[in-house]
Structure formats: C-alpha cells, structure tokens
Amino acid sequence: MTARRPSPDLNSPIVEASGLWKRFGDRAAVRDVSLAVRPGEIVGLVGPNGAGKTTTIRMLLGIVRPDAGGVSVFGGELSLAARERIGYLPEERGLYQGLRLLPNLCYLAELRGMPRERALRRADVLLARLGLEPHRRKRVRELSRGLGQLTQFAAALVHEPAFIVLDEPFSGLDPVNARLMKDVVAELRAEGAAIIFSTHQMTDVEEICDRVLMVNEGRVVLDGALSEIKRAFSGGGVFVAADQAPDAIDGVTDWRRDGAGYVLALADGCAPEAVLRALLDRGAKIDRFELAAPSLEEIFLRVVEQDDA
Amino acid sequence: MRKTWLVARHEFSVTTGRLSYRAFVALVPALVILGLAAAAIFQAVGADDAPGDDAPSAAPAAETLFGYVDRTIGADGQPLFSRFWQQADTRFTLYADEQAATRDLLAGRIERLFIFPADFLATGRIVEMREERPGLFDSGGFGGNNALRRFVAQNLFDGQVSADLLDRAVTPYRLSVVEVSDSGAPADDDDGIIDTLLFMAVGVLFIVSAFTASGYLLQGLTEEKENRMMEVLLSSIDPEHLMYGKLIGLGAAGLAQIAVWAASLVALALALGAIMDWPIDLARLPSLGNAAAALAYFVLGYALIGASLAAIGAITTNQRQASNITALVIVPAIAPMWFMFTLLENPDSTLARTLSFIPITAPVTSLMRLGLGGMSGWDVALSLAILAAGVAAAIALTARVFRAYLLTYGQPPRLGHLLRTLRGG
Q1: In chain A, which residue's Cα lies nearest the Cα of B232?
Q2: Owning domain of residue A264
Q3: pLDDT tens string A46-95
Q4: Angstroms from B256 CA to nearest CA on chain A
Q5: Which of A127, A253, B238, B270 qualifies as a cystine partner to A132, CB 3.0-4.6 A?
Q6: Are B228 and A107 an interchain contact pair (Cβ–Cβ within 8 Å)?
Q7: B10/A63 Cβ within 8 A
Q8: How many other CB atoms sit within 10 Å of the CB of residue B399?
C-alpha cells in the first residue's frame, strides 16, 4: 500500500502528544493526555463514549487546537505540510455523496498535496486492492454501507500517508471485507506507517494493535503494550483445559470452572510450571495450559469501573 | 493558496455540474429562443396583414371600416371629403343617407360612424355616432383618431401644401428629450432607456444569481456538516482557506451564470433588432466605466452575501435551521426593491444615496442608480469603498465563525457565545 515518506528512524515517534488539554465551556473533554506512536506501530485508542477519544484525535489532526500541551508529527510541529501526510478515516463517514468514487478520492488526495496524475494512478491501485474497481463509476450514495466504508478507507489512504488515524474502521463491514481491511492495515504497518486505531471492539484491538491507550473522562487510565497489560491484569492465575478438577494442588489457592477448563488462582511465589507438573503427575489429560489473562474487554470494564469509583 | 484554488475549482465544477444549476442557467436562453420565435411569428403575421400600396379597392380581411356622412360644401360647391378613403388599414365609406349609415353601424358592417356637419370648416366639429356610451378611458382609440386626422387633413390640404406640411398638420410634433450635463452640453448617454433597462435587468439578475450562488454555498456547507465531510476537509485545509475557496468557486459559478444570461439578452436584442427592424447599436451599450462598476457591485455584493450565508452555514447543523436564519441576510439585501419606484423617480435622492452607502443594500440600489444615471463618480467610489470594507469585515468575522463552529453539531450556539466568538474571544 506504500506509506509516503516513512520516517527513517524507527525508534522516533511519528506522532507525539504531550499534556493535551481541551475544554468546552466548563467541561474538560481532554485532560493531560500524552501519547506517542512509532513507525510500524498500531496503537489502540479505547475508552467509553464521551471519554475524549474524538477530541484527542481532532487535536492530533490539527482540526482542533489544544488549550494546553502540544502535538509534534514527523519530528516537527503540526503544520499544514505535515497534515498532508496524515490519513484520517472518521467515525462518521465523510464523502461527497453525489460524486463518483474517483473524483472523491482524487479531490481529497489533491487537497493533501498529491499531484492529480499521481492521485489518479494511486486511486486506481487502491480501488483495485479493495475490490472497488467495478464500482469506480458509481456515485457514493449508490454504494452499500460496507462498500461506502471501504471507499472511506481508500480516501484515508489515497495520498500515501505515513501516519493514519482510523476511527471505528470496521463498522458496517462483513467479515470478508473486515478481513480485507485488516490485511491492508497489516501491510501498512509492515511498510512503517504509524497507526492509531480507535474503536469499541476490543477483540479487534486485541487482534491488530501493538499497544493500547485507554482513556476515561478525558484522562489516560491505561497505556502500554498489549501483552504487558494482559500480564499485569492476569493476577498470576493460569487457565487449564483438563479432564479433571485441579483439587488439592500445592500453591493453588482457589479455582473455578470457566468454559471448557478451569481458572486457577496461584499463591504468591507459586510457579505455573509447578502446577502443570503436579497435574501431569496425577495423570490428568491436559489440552491447554496458559496464563489466565483476562480479555481486553474485561480489563476495559475493570479499569473504567475502578476509575469511575 | 494552492488549496484555496483547489477548493474553488472543486466547488465550481461540482456546482456547474448540478442538474439544477444547468437547468437554471438554461432558463434565460430558453426564454430568449421562445421570445425570438414569438417575434418571428408576430412579424410574419404582421407582414401578411399589411396592405400594399397598390391594394385593390376591395377591403383586406383585417381592414377597419369607418363610415361617414358628409354635409359640408367646399368653395367649389363640392363636399370636402370626397377622396382619400383609404388611410393605412382604415377605409372610410361615404354614406349619402345617415339612416342607412346608422343601420350599417348597428349591424356591425362599419365600426364607427362620423357625421361632418355643414359648419365643419367654421367649428371643426365632427359628430361620432356610437352604438354604446363610450367608456371612461375610451377616447376614441389612437389608431382611429389618427386615421381620422389624416383623412381630414388630406382631404382639406392635398395639392395645396407639401407632403411634409401635411404630415405636420396631422402630427404637429414628436417630442424628444435630451439630458444636459452640468456643463450645459448634452449628456454622453442620450439613450438612457437602454442603460436603465439593462441595469434594471442586471439588478434583478444580480439578485437571482448572487442568491443562487450563495444558496449553493450554504447548501454545500450544511451538507458537508451533515455528512461529516467537514471533518475530513479540515484535517487537510485551514477553515479560512476552505471559506475563500468556496466563495471564489461559487462566485465564479454565479458569474458564469450571469455571463450566459447577459449573452442571451444581448443576442435577443440583436436578433429582435434584425427581425423587427429595430435599430440596435452595440456602441449604445453602457459605458465601460458603468459596466466595470456593475461588475464590481456584483462581485462585492456576492462576496458579502456569500460570506454572511457561509457564517450561517457554519453555525447551523442542517439546512432547515439554516434556511430559517437566511432571511436575516436576504431581506435587507433585497430591501431596495421595495423602494424601486422612489429610486426610479429620483435616483439621486437622500434615500437612494443612503441605501448606496449601506453595504448590504448597496449592490441592488447602486445597480439601479447606475442604470438611471443618478450616481456620480464620487458616489460610486465611496459606495464601493464602503462595500469593500463591509466585505472584508464579513469575511474576517465569518472566518472566526468557521474556526469556532464548523465542527459543532446539534443546536446552534447561543447568541452570547456567538458574539464572544465574533469579538475574537
């Protein structure tokens, strides 16, 4: 898919926000939010409705000016030239309904600094990659919801951005097109694009994100690599899919049935390997044994509840 | 600046591509073609009906028949009205007997009946016999009187005076009014009616075109807000440049509309001149200075109305809300039309001058005054300067509104908040 002018330094963030504040009247929509996204990294921006995700995104895009704090992209300030290298897929779709696909894509590409000829070639490539080639002569209003969503996705990528913001990109897509879009996102990551992915679908975040930034009531309540967050919320427990209950095993303080297996709570200092050995020694047939990390959705609910409390 | 032109080009092509725009632009040329067709038909029918110089004595089908009884006796002992019965499309029929003439009048065989009494030469009195009492505004009909005058004059003076004197006896004068300038010399434009009609037409076209273009601007903005296109646009362009681009693009679409309409009207005038044999001289079109001033009023007037409506588009969420507020701009802009008759009567009055110096009423008022010749160079310069200042202020305020409200949805802002924004707070 090619990201335009990728940053040469993979360790330097493509976008970096520090201490962002935004007030609307008496209400602080965003409070001291900081984040950084590096090349080839997908950061999931999650949070309940009204948490400040959209306002944060708008500040990162330069649509809204922060009251305090700053945004730096591509190592410099958020200038118009820098904004031309940003791709944005908004939560609510924004295309000219009466225009055909190609003029829509070309206009947006030109607005972001791409010459018309190149924009036309790039739009052709994208339409073909996203399976929209048969619809290129259609007006946007004639497309189904899913095809309209793919067109919006193409509009976000047509100018070969190096930093991409995707706000609920999979809504309205059938599983086939959702997979297609995820594949393209993976290609963009592999090419070095920095991606912010905002959604309520935690399973999607778990599937494609490297890091998670969770906001609630305008503040960052969780920030880190997905694997680290899961480990932090695992509580030291393990999940075992076995043919017998884990009764009376040293180091197991509690257990409960969970679907096809058991979730075991371990005493401090108890190594999961010792529990596995004990189960094997008593002749249990084991199909799965893993750290009992909660789902991101469980973590999300737990964090939001704790924060609200 | 590059993005401003990109937006302008996009807006122009999208607007001129709209079916409604094209239909509206084509309306005037279509009316012109219809008008020409009607004129051609009218002319063809008129040519068929016109009597030839050597027409036979039998009356043509469309001929008007008048009857008369002649009791006069001339110096030679003969009745005075014994010749020249055919006057253009009116034929005078002599009756020896008043009763027979009256019967023909009642039967509709003649349209009018005149009795020339024996003392006609002394008194000039003619009696018209009519079937009905004449109406309040019926003076006998211009054509009828004219034919009668020529019939009388020709019978009285033929052979005694020249044809020119005979003409003057029938039509003593044709008054022609020439306007003089302050220096006492005839004013440059002695064909004021053309300027007047043209500028009145331009005034109306301005209103229609400016409001059409501004309406498209407002509609486009509210659509972009409603379908969230605005968010995508603002991630790539500043609100000010977006606004400038829209104003330029839609203004160009409005000018294109005006150009097509003006060309159609000129074509109509030339073609009508050819068909109806009217003398049309292109050199008599408005002076370059007046035309340039008219163009300036159109451009600035559109910019003022467009910027104002753009601000309304920015603070409202949908077209219904927007259309409720547009009256705040539209009503003052067309208010000079309410005073049209006052302006026509005295284009240099205090009212006319005052309206020319208020930015929102200046375009329509000044376009009318230009046509009426009631606007001095100083008035034009001052009016345009004030209008330009108004446009600059409107654009600056609209830019603030754009920055503050383009991404707001739901209810429009409260008045206090809006005023703080306009003050730059």
Answers
A1: A94
A2: 236-291
A3: 988 888 898 999 899 888 889 999 999 988 888 888 888 999 998 877 78
A4: 22
A5: A127
A6: no
A7: no
A8: 21
Strands, E assignment, chain A:
15-24, 27-37, 42-46, 68-73, 76-77, 86-89, 163-167, 194-198, 211-216, 219-225, 238-242, 252-258, 261-266, 286-291
Q: What is the pLDDT of residue B59?
A: 41
Please indicate, yes or no, whether residues A108 and A241 belong to a single structural domain of this protein: no
Residue A52's φ and ψ, nearest 5 degrees, are 110, 10
Total number of domains constituting chain A: 2
pLDDT of residue A253: 85
ipTM for this model: 0.76
CA distance linking residue B10 with residue A215, whole number of Å? 38
| A66: CATH | 3.40.50.300
Does residue A175 sit in the same domain as residue A250? no
Q: What is the pLDDT of residues A9-22, one digit of tens each?
A: 566 889 999 999 99
Selecting from B6, B223, B229 the residue whose C-beta is nearest the C-beta of A110 gives B6
Contact yes or no for B227 and A86 at CB 8 A: no
**Of A190, A212, A230, at which residue does a domain stop?**
A230
CB atoms within 10 A of CB A168: 18
CA nearest A55: which of A71, A39, A74? A71
Quick check: A107 and B234 CB within 8 A?
A: no
Q: How many CB pairs under 8 A join A and B?
A: 57
Beta strands A42-46 and A194-198: pairing type? Answer: parallel
pLDDT in tens, B11-42: 999 888 888 888 888 887 888 788 778 877 77
In CATH terms, B64-170 corresponds, of 3.40.190, 3.30.160, 2.30.30, 3.90.1750, to 3.40.190
Q: What is the pLDDT of residue A109?
A: 94
Chain A neighbors of B3, CB-CB under 8 A: 80, 111
Backbone angles phi, psi at B359, to 5 degrees: -50, -45
Nearest to A16 by CA among A56, A47, A60, A53: A60
DSSP letters of A289-302?
EEE-PPPHHHHHHH
Give me the residue label for tokens 């055909």: A100
Mark whether A272 and A151 lie in a shared domain: no
Q: What angle is formed at CA A97 by the lines to CA A94 and CA A103, rounded to 5 degrees?
A: 90
Give the residue-averaged pLDDT of A94-101: 86
Task: Say if CB A104 and CB A151 are below 8 A apart.
Answer: yes
Which one of A63, A73, A114, A143 would you mutate to disrupt binding with B, by most B Cβ within 10 Å of its Cβ?
A63
Contact (CB, 8 A) for B67 and B112 = yes
Q: Nearest CA of chain B to the CA of A164: how many Å?
A: 12
